[in-house]
Amino acid sequence: MSNRRLPNIRKILIIRNDGIGDLLNSTPAIALLRQNYLDAEITVLVQPLNAPILIGNPDVDRVLIFDRENEHRRLRDRLRFYQNLRHEKYDLVVVMRTASWCNLVAFLAGARYRLGRYQKRFKNFLTHSWRGQYEKGEVHEVDRNFDLVRLICDEDGHRRLVLNLLADETAGTKQLLADWGIAPNDFLVGIHPGGSSFDKRWPKENYAQVAEALVREYGAKILILRGPDEAELAINLQKAIQSKSIAYAPKSIRELATLITRCDFFVCNDSGPMHIAAALDVRTVAIFGPTDHVAWKPLSEEATIVRRDMPCWPCSAHKCKIGWECTKKLAVDTVWDRVEEWAQDKVAAQNHNRKRIPSARQTPMPSLHGNQSSQSTSR
Question: What are 279-317's pLDDT values in tens digits?
């Protein structure tokens, strides 16, 4: 094999200042860079939202935060930021986020080598570029990132997301759960009904039906997790669930991750928390709408996706002319079938001796949308 590694690389800057899932699905490629450039100092440029993902990551030496909304809102502050980047004297900048601003920053940093995708403005500032094209439904995001960094790396990487929790973080979560009356052997199901956009959100009434069945048939305890802007959504879901449930807004991404790892399984939309659950190998049932499920499915053998196949997919979700039927009309029964499979596994693992209530497979749950054609896909 020819040597693709670049010579004399002492300092590497990786740009990934976008979403939680974007960064997590970049961690295998970051690990491959570390594997190929063992002696280099690796810095990752992120935004405040996704920065906590990298705490405890052994492949990252430094985290650099660009805060466009606050610290770097003014032009003079941004210019000072760019000047400081140049003073760092990076040998290599890897643009993992495909965006014009990132290509520009790679150039302003003054690195000898600048790797990115040959897309967006300022692409000519790159010295090494990936020039392929991906069609929807073909390649996972992890593999796209591998395709990029393999231009300058020799070995293959491992398709495993990296998210490490610290001992004091997990200890704090145990105390929080105890305060809520959740014992270590309780069957705990986490639900995240949110998502980055309206088209990704399965209706709260549907989540309520699934939660109610889990409580009734398996004695589950329900933990509704929400982001800072999802208070109303979580409260309305809690009201729709007739049984007792807990709704909580984690104080940080790290606390969210520790709560997810305690869940016996997690039910959610396509979202950042979905990728966190995948990184932690928590059993996850992920509901997909118009998103490219091949590219963004949770990368874990413990995860499965449920979706409603539509003749208009792949699509441009934000211009949908039929009201996002792929998400909004995904049948409750379809999601419940997959949830119940894993609930039964949990019951078997705990060797419960109590008499089983007839399952929803024998007594189908009512669907809000009648006999809609739906599909469940295991990944």
Answer: 999 999 999 999 999 999 999 999 999 999 888 887 866
Q: What is the pLDDT of residues 36-61, one digit of tens each?
A: 999 999 999 999 999 999 999 999 99
Range(s) within the chain of domains with CATH label 3.40.50.2000: 11-149, 168-377
Q: Are strands 284-288 and 265-269 parallel, antiparallel or unpaired?
A: parallel
Domain covering 11-149: architecture: 3-Layer(aba) Sandwich (3.40)
Can you say how many angstroms the Cα of residue 265 is from the centroid of all Cα atoms in its chain? 15
According to DSSP, the β-strands at 11-15 and 92-95 are: parallel
Q: What is the model's pTM?
A: 0.89
Say which CATH class 168-377 falls into. alpha beta
Helices (H), the chain: 20-24, 27-36, 75-87, 100-108, 141-149, 167-179, 204-218, 231-240, 253-262, 272-279, 293-296, 325-328, 332-350
